[in-house]
Design goal:
This is Acetate kinase. By secondary structure, the chain is an alpha/beta fold. The protein is 38% helix and 21% strand. It contains 16 helices and 13 strands.
């Protein structure tokens, strides 16, 4: 395929999603996507082009840097696309702190600021930095742009962002930032496009995947969110604990004398659905298929906390007109949506069983006082749009 191309990288703590877009005038069209999972050795490069799937074992070592991995990955992609036409690369960067209020061109100065924020996101930020540096080594001529997960929540009032801690800590950056902002930006745009009468009102969006959070929006702008200082906060997730009494951490460190590294691993990787189910699974589908009462309890706790957070966020925006489910679980798991809605009947939310089972765009009944929607998210699209805008001298807003 000829013509200019744009590539996106959506880095997680243990994997990276890659998107490839063709540029036709001012229009971007995704033509392929890929995944590299760093949890397995050898690395596997999974490329999807329409209905065609390629799985390739990579020879490169990724222990210290990703330069060799990126070089080999681009070589494989170049067998299908003319990467001499690649003009720009967009990166998802989890944390923008208070430094960034929009996507930015990556240069030496912005890269230094992004690196300084690694202390606030030690699991995710370094992975994005490794990708940025690798692409700088492999294709130094390419324009690179950073899109930040925290930026969408910069509209949260200062009171919402503040912890009840000494003011000096807040001034040093110990505050609520919120995450999954690229996903929520996409959902806000989709609501404006498809349901404009809903988009201008009071909306809570539930991004439910392996990582899960919720966001309260007024007129498409974030007013409050479940995640705070870190991606551990809010509702329980696949393997993360969600909101936790800080005294539990003190107890584990001081009374049980557990090493900090062990506590960190437990909170990020051994808790949530996996922890409450007794290690059965972190996957809702496997828990739903299990007869073990611990599996049911994990799912019950998950949906209870989600519903509770919807209630709290509704308070922040003065009520609720619509609820949006998105991300892997939110988009595909009718049982989870039913369970969440079952706790919210007092708000006037009722789901259509048929529409919910079909993952229809609108899943609430006509009589429901709160409308409910299922809208697939697309973080890669936001990254691509922002990278394209910034590379062309626009704001990317």
């Amino acid at each position: 395929m000829s013509g200019p191309l744009l590539m996106t990288f959506n880095a997680g703590s243990s994997s990276v999603k890659i998107g490839l877009f063709s540029i036709v005038g001012e229009t971007l069209k995704r033509i392929a996507h890929a995944l590299i999972d760093f949890r397995h050795s050898p690395l596997t490069f999974h490329l999807v082009e329409g209905k065609t799937v390629f799985d390739v074992e990579l020879k490169a070592d990724h222990a210290d840097h990703l330069t060799d991995v990126m070089a080999e990955t681009l070589d494989w992609i170049s067998e299908h696309y003319d990467l001499s036409e690649l003009t720009c690369v967009g990166h998802r960067v989890v944390h923008g702190g208070d430094e960034f209020d929009g996507p930015v061109l990556i240069d030496d100065t912005s890269l230094t600021h992004i690196e300084a924020l690694s202390i606030l996101a030690p699991l995710h930020q370094p992975q994005a930095l490794r990708l940025i540096r690798a692409m700088r080594q492999v294709r130094p001529e390419l324009t690179q742009v950073a899109s930040f997960d925290t930026v969408f929540h910069r509209t949260n009032p200062d009171l919402i962002r503040r912890f009840a801690l000494p003011r000096a800590l807040h001034d040093r950056g110990i505050k609520r930032y919120g995450f999954h902002g690229l996903s929520y930006k996409f959902i806000a745009a989709e609501l404006r496009r498809r349901f404009p009468e809903i988009a201008s009102g009071r909306v809570v969006a539930a991004h439910l995947g392996s990582g899960a959070s919720l966001c309260a929006m007024l007129d498409g702008k974030s007013q409050d969110t479940s995640m705070g200082f870190s991606t551990l906060d809010g509702v329980p997730m696949a393997t993360r604990c969600g909101a936790l009494d800080a005294g539990v951490i003190l107890h584990l460190l001081q009374q049980e004398h557990r090493p900090v590294e062990e506590v960190e691993d437990m909170l990020y990787h051994q808790s949530g659905l996996k922890g409450v189910s007794g290690g059965i699974s972190a996957d809702c589908r496997e828990l739903q298929a299990s007869d073990d009462p611990h599996a049911k309890e994990a799912l019950d706790l998950f949906t209870l906390r989600i519903a509770g957070e919807i209630g709290r966020l509704s308070m922040s925006i003065g009520g609720l007109d619509a609820l949006v489910f998105t991300a892997g679980i939110g988009e595909n798991d009718a049982a989870i949506r039913t369970a969440v809605a079952g706790h919210l009947g007092w708000m006037g939310l009722t789901l259509s069983e048929d529409a919910n089972q079909k993952n229809a765009p609108c899943i609430s009944t006509p009589e429901s006082r709160v409308k409910a929607f299922v809208i697939p998210t697309n973080e890669e699209r936001v990254i691509a749009d922002e990278a394209f805008a910034v590379s062309n001298g626009k704001s990317g807003a």
